[in-house]
Amino acid sequence: MPFTDRARIHVEGGHGGGGCLSFRREKYIPRGGPDGGNGGRGGRVYVVADEQEKDLTRFRHAVHHRAQAGGAGEGRVKRGRAGDDLEIAVPPGTRVLRDDEVIAELDHAGDRVQVARGGEGGVGNRAFRSSTHQAPRETVPGMPGEEAWVTLELRLAVDVALVGLPNSGKSAVLVALTGAGATVAAWPHSTREPALGPLEDDEGHLFTVIDLPGLAADGTPRDDDHLVQCERARVILHCVDASDEEPAEARIARAREGFGPFTHEGAAEWVVATHADPADRPAWADFAVDSVAGEGVAALREALVRALGAAPAAA
Ligand SMILES: Nc1nc2c(ncn2[C@@H]2O[C@H](COP(=O)(O)OP(=O)(O)OP(=O)(O)O)[C@@H](O)[C@H]2O)c(=O)[nH]1
Ligand SMILES: [Mg+2]
C-alpha cells in the first residue's frame, strides 16, 4: 500500500436553493398574494482531523468534493432546507493550504477548518411584494457555492526520523532499534515507503521512529522521498555507512544539504555510523552501531529515550 502525504483536492460548497415563484391559490380567494419562499443555503465543506485516517491515499482518486445543495423555496412562503455540510476526514497532523497559504494545522482529532462556503439561497417572489407591486413575478436563483483547490500535507507526529544517503543502513537501524518490520536490503532505494517503529522507555512512554527512503546518491531530495515526515521529529538520526570508502565528511555534508531544509528548527541531528564497531567510533560520528550484529544499538536507544523524555513532545 503506498503511503501518500500530499494531495490536492477540489472542494465546492453546495449550490443555494432557488427562490420560488408562487401565488396563493385558495377557494374563495380569487387573487391570493405572492407566497413563493426563499431557497436554503448550500452546505459548507470542512476538513476534519479523524484518527481513523492514516494517510492521504484515498485522495488520489477522490479529488472532487461538493456539499449538498440547498432546497428550493416553496409556496406558502416555505423556505428551502439548508444543504448538509460535507466533512472530509483526514489524519491528524494534516496541514491545509489554499493558494499556497497555510490555513490550518489539524494536529488533533476533531480539529476542523472550513474550506468552502455554501451558496446563498435564492429569494422567492413573496419578498418582492409591495403596495405598488402586488403580484411580483421576480425571484432570485440560488448562488453557486464557493470553489477552491486545497492542498493537504500530512506530517506524522514522529519523534525520531532516520535519514541519509541510499543504502546507509537506515532501515537496519529501525529494525534493530524498534523491532519494526522494514525492508532491509543490499541495494540502494530499497525503502519505498516510510516505515514506523515504536520506542518505549522504562516508564512506558511510547515514542515513534520513522524510517524514510534514502536521498539521491548525490544527496539531493527525490520525488516520493517523503522528507516532509522529518518536519516534526525532535531527533534526526543521520545514518552514515562507516565501511564506505568515500570520506564520511563529504557524504555527511551532502546528505545534510538535502534533508536539512525539511527538519524542525529545534531538532537535534545525531550522526550514526553504521557498519561500525561501537568500540571504535569514528571521530565524525556521535554513535556507532552494527545493526546486524545488534552492537551499539542499546546505547543509542538509551540516549534517545533520555533525550526524548527530557523534552516535551513537539506540537
Ligand atoms: N554488517 C552490517 N550490515 C549492515 C548494517 N546496517 C545495514 N547493513 C546492511 O546494509 C544493507 C543496506 O541496509 P538498509 O538498512 O537497507 O539501508 P537503507 O539506508 O535503509 O537503504 P535504502 O532504504 O535503500 O536507502 C543491508 O544489506 C543491510 O543488511 C550494519 O550496521 N552492519
Ligand atoms: Mg531503507
The proportion of residues forming helix, as a percent range, comes to: 10-25%
**Overall outline:** rod-shaped
Order of helices and strands: EEEEEEEEEHEEEHEEH
- How much of the sequence lies in strands comes to 15-25%
Biggest β-sheet: count, sense, barrel? 6 strands, mixed
Strand order of the largest sheet: 10-11-9-12-13-14
Q: Give the name of the CATH architecture of the largest domain.
A: Distorted Sandwich
Please state the average pLDDT score. Answer: 93
Count of helical regions: 3
CATH superfamily of the largest domain: GTP1/OBG domain
Round the Cα radius of gyration to an integer and report it: 29 Å
Topology-level CATH name of the largest domain:
Spo0b-associated Gtp-binding Protein, Chain: A
Question: In angstroms, what separates the terminal alpha carbons?
Answer: 28 Å
By secondary-structure content and strand pairing, the structural class works out as alpha/beta
The total count of strands amounts to 14
What does this structure look like?
The chain is an alpha/beta fold and 315 residues long. It has two domains: 1-154, Spo0b-associated Gtp-binding Protein, Chain: A (Distorted Sandwich); 160-310, Rossmann fold. The chain contains three helices and 14 strands. It has helices at residues 170-178, 248-259, 297-310; strands at residues 6-12, 45-49, 64-66, 86-90, 94-98, 101-106, 112-116, 147-154, 160-164, 195-200, 206-211, 235-241, 268-274, 287-288. The strands form three sheets. Strands 10-11-9-12-13-14 form a six-stranded mixed sheet. A five-stranded mixed sheet has the order 3-1-8-5-6, with no helix packed on it. The longest helix has 14 residues, at 297-310.
